Amino acid sequence: MSYRHRHIHPKIRNLRRRKRLVQRPIFWIVLLILLLLSSASYFILFFPGFQVSHIKISGYKKVSSQEIEDIILSNLDKKFFGSEIIDISSKSIFIVDTKKIIGDIKNKFPIIEEVNIKRELPNIISLTITEREPFTVFCDSGNKCFQIDKNGVIFEEAQHINRESVVLRREANQNGVYIGAHVASKSTIDAIFKVVDNLKNNFNISTTEVLISNPLILKTSENWKIYFNLDSDIKLQITKMNSLLENEITESERKTLNYIYLQYKDRAYYK
After folding, report:
1. Which of 8, 80, 124, 200 could disulfide-link 54, Cβ–Cβ 3.0 to 4.6 Å?
2. Sheet bearing 112-120, strands edge to edge
3. Cα–Cα distance, 11 to 7 (Å, whole number)
4. How far apart are alpha carbons 180 and 147 in whole angstroms?
């Protein structure tokens, strides 16, 4: 009997009525969480009050605000489902792809240096743009000239060249002269204008032209040239140049000067 009892009892236990899934608390907890998430998602994506309806643009001078607005509008409508019968899309302020908008604007308008985008709840996108300012002029081998900014970026053709402008050039075999291109790195541009400012402020010598190469070659208004090594400390080379112009090369001797070589590490030559 004991053997029979041990084997019948588990069978009886298995015949007990199990709780349905809907009767379990975990089912209702999971369902409630899903409903809350679905409601929140719908509210964020499709609530009319959060659909972008206003665009504010400031800071532009030369670019067209309408063209910028068109780029923004083309990036607003996010489709979730589209067919001939039903079209589900959203312009929710929360899902605006600001990085893509910034990239598209900069690609279309090289003159724009920075774009800042803010979401102003509930439905306003606000843009502040900063346009590049002319810093100096770059001319290619065919004497076609462009405005460049302080970072060395070409952003528009130069309609005229100021007589006081420092004209930058590159070696004739170098490519990449187009709107949006870098003619040189920012560090090179900074190095050039450290020398330019030093010559002007300390010796009243203007720089008329710079050949961006290595060595870097500056041509002065007195028609002599200075050679610098871009791979070495530019401040040290400026110090050597100042020492020569202050202590060895007089103002009258500068009239017959041909060049100053500063690119050698421990020496400076002039002729």
Report:
1. 124
2. 54-58, 124-131, 112-120
3. 7
4. 11
- Please write the tens of the pLDDT for every residue from 7-63: 555 555 555 566 676 667 776 677 678 777 777 777 788 899 999 999 999 999 999
For residue 81, give the DSSP letter. E
Cis peptide before 48 (omega within 30 of 0): no
CA-to-CA distance for 108 and 6, rounded, in angstroms? 83
Q: How far apart are CA 229 and CA 131, in angstroms?
A: 32
Residue 242 has which token pair?
Answer: 């100042």
Going by CATH, does the domain composed of 48-131 fall within 2.60.40.10?
no
Measure CA 16 to chain center: 70
DSSP 131-191: EPPP-EEEE-TT--EEEE-TT-BEEEE-SS--TTPPEEEE-TT----STT-BSS-HHHHHH
Flag whether pLDDT at 2 surpasses 70: no
Question: How do the domains of the chain map onto residue ranges?
Answer: 48-131, 136-270
- Secondary structure (3-state) at 105: helix
Tens digits of residue pLDDT in 221-254: 999 999 999 999 999 999 999 999 999 999 999 9
pLDDT, residue 28, reads 67
| Cβ-defined contacts of 223-226 (< 8 Å, 24+) | 224/254, 224/257, 224/258, 224/259, 224/260, 225/258, 225/259, 225/260, 226/195, 226/259, 226/260, 226/262
Which of 247, 146, 137 is closest to 192 using CA atoms? 137
Q: What is the CATH number of domain 136-270?
A: 3.40.50.11690
